[in-house]
Amino acid sequence: MTDLSGKHGLIVGVANKRSISWAIAQAAAAAGARLALTYPSERLEENVRELAATLDNPLVLPCDVADDRQIADLGATLDREFGGLDFLLHGAAFAPADALKNPFTETSRESFRIALDVSAYSLIGLSRAVTPLMEKRGGGSILTLTFIGSDRVFTNYNVMGVAKAALESAVRYLASDLGPKNIRVNAISAGAIKTLASAGITGISTMLQAYREKSPLRRGVDTAEVADAAIFLLGQGARGISGEVLMVDSGFHIMGGA
Ligand code: NAD
């Protein structure tokens, strides 16, 4: 079991109890970490506060990842409250609804900008903000969440696939930049799971069915399975791993079409 006691972590991406980031927050807290959770808007604040109340002494802070000011304020608050940071879990993603149902060719410049900004650039902005805090601890671990739609075409995943490709590339460039500071940067590519974000993709049930029928394990994955892998990547057991995209998808990615 990974021990995170004495560690401080930032979890970005909890919306409700189905969120992958919430499963990771629970697992990190169970491993002994003290956490800060963020909410992007007042609309989601109460949800996040209610969930956070079940953890031991968490911080709950605002952060719309599309806003540089809020990212900077978050870094300053964490520095003041935690005096440094050991890990960051980045689980924020968003694309406007029209981009997830219209033909990909119809993707507007504005939808493209928003999807890439919130889902990919935010990892760069947040990593920059937490780097000095991690340096205070002699290093750290940054983890993001991606999907195989970065590489292969899934109906209606559309611009989110492009954003995930950018995100995975950013993982490698960040890993190269931050490695000399002993900061590792990795991603987990999770199989399809029913959550608030995935419910926005028209045809998510067909995707879930494909996992049940085609994966070597003949089932999808759940958020607890992703969380177990996340705790490994965040902790000491993965100290030699950086720039990696770890597939946690019941083996779905190895299968050919026939
Ligand atoms: P979710 O809806 O619970 O999480 C998405 C989070 O992004 C929400 O908490 C939302 O508040 C946050 N977010 C959106 N815009 C934001 C902004 N401007 N600022 C800050 N936060 C913002 O859904 P999830 O499925 O748990 O998604 C978490 C991550 O996992 C996402 O990156 C998603 O793409 C990825 N992922 C999901 C699946 C799946 O099938 N559910 C599979 C692979 C990867």
Describe the protein.
With 258 residues, the protein is α/β, with parallel strands linked by helices. A seven-stranded parallel beta sheet has the order 3-2-1-4-5-6-7, with helices on both faces. Helix 1 crosses helix 8 and helix 3 packs parallel to helix 4. The chain is globular, with a radius of gyration of 17 Å. It binds nicotinamide-adenine-dinucleotide (NAD). The site of nicotinamide-adenine-dinucleotide has 27 residues, from helix 1, strand 5 and helix 6.
List keywords for this structure.
globular, binds nicotinamide-adenine-dinucleotide, 43% helix, Rossmann fold, seven-stranded parallel sheet, alpha/beta, 258 residues
Could you tell me the CATH topology label: Rossmann fold
Ligand identities: nicotinamide-adenine-dinucleotide
> How much is the radius of gyration in Å?
17 Å
- Give the helix proportion (percent range): 40-55%
The tally of structural domains comes to 1
CATH class: Alpha Beta
Q: Brief overview, please?
A:
The protein has helices at about 20-30, 40-50, 70-80, 110-135, 160-180, 195-200, 205-215, 225-235; strands spanning about 10, 35-40, 60, 85-90, 140-145, 185-190, 245-250. By secondary structure, it is of the alpha/beta class.
